[in-house]
Amino acid sequence: MKKDKNIKSYYSSNQGMFGIMFKKIFITLICFSFLFLATACQAEKEAVMPDKPIEISLNMTAKELYDTNPEYKAFQEADAQPMGVTFQGYDFPGYKEPTVIIKYPNGELSIDGVMSVLAYDDDEQANYKLSKINLGFLFNHKVSGISDENAYKKMMSFFKQLQDKGWTYAKNLSEPRLSPKDSFTFATKEGGNDFNLDYTYPLNFEQWMQLSDLQIWQLRHGTDVFMNIRINRQSDPETGNRHYLISLDVFDELELIKQGVMDKIHARD
Predict the structure, then answer these.
(1) What is the DSSP string of 123-149?
(2) pTM score
(3) What is the pLDDT of residues 13-59, one digit of tens each?
(4) Which residues contact 256 (CB under 8 A, 6 or more apart)?
(5) Where would I find the beta strands (DSSP E) of 140-253?
(6) Which residues 6+ apart lie within 8 Å of 115 measured at CB?
C-alpha cells in the first residue's frame, strides 16, 4: 500500500522537470514562427546533426550519457539549479531533432523527433545514477502544426507500440476498480481525475477531443520501471494552428520512493 501511495504522489507533484521542458518547447515554437527573420534560428537550422540515434540507459551516469554519444557533444546542455542539482541532457535546434533510444530493464523504446533530453543529476553525489529521464517532442515540427485528427492517430499508434512492448496501466490500489471503458467516463466527468484514464482503452476521435488539454497517462513496465506521458494541446491565438507537446518521463522504483518521501516532508511543512 505504501508503494501504491508513492505512485500517486509522484505523478501529482513532479512538476519542475516538466516546466523546464515545456519552456524549451515554447521557445522553439516561437523560433519556428520567425525562422527566416531571426539570426539565431537560422544558425540553428544550419547545425549539422549526426545520423545515428542517441542512446540512453536508465540509471547511467551523466558521464556515461555523454561518453556514449560523443557525436552529440555540441548539443549537450547542463542546466544548473539551486541546492546542488543540475539537469543534464541535450537541447536540439528546430528541424534537426534526432531519434532517441531509451533503454530500461527488459526493453527499449525509440522516439523520433526529440527536442530535449533532461535528467536530474545530484551534484553532491559522485557517479550519481540518472534514475529519471525526460524526453520532450512534438508530433509535428512545422509552423502549421498538426490537425487534431492526425495527432489522435499518432498517439493511438504510439500507445499500440507501448502495449506491444509490455507496458501496462499503472493502476493504484486506492483507485476505483474500473474497466478501461469506465476509466474514460470517470476521468472526463466533473470531479473526475485525469490520472485514472487507462491508456489501453481504445479512444475514438470524439473521445480524444473530450480529454483535457493537459492530459496525463501513467504506465508501468513490470514492477520496476514507470512512465508518465503528458500531452499539452496548444492553439496559436493568431493562426489557430494546433500543436501537441509531448512529455515522456521514464523512471525507476527508487525514484518513485524518493519522491514519495519528499512529498511527506512537504506535507508536514
Answers:
(1) TTSTT-B--EEEEEEES--STT---HH
(2) 0.79
(3) 444 454 555 455 444 444 443 333 333 444 444 568 899 999 999 99
(4) 3, 6, 7, 10, 226
(5) 168-169, 214-221, 225-235, 242-252
(6) 24, 25, 28, 91, 92, 97, 136, 137, 138
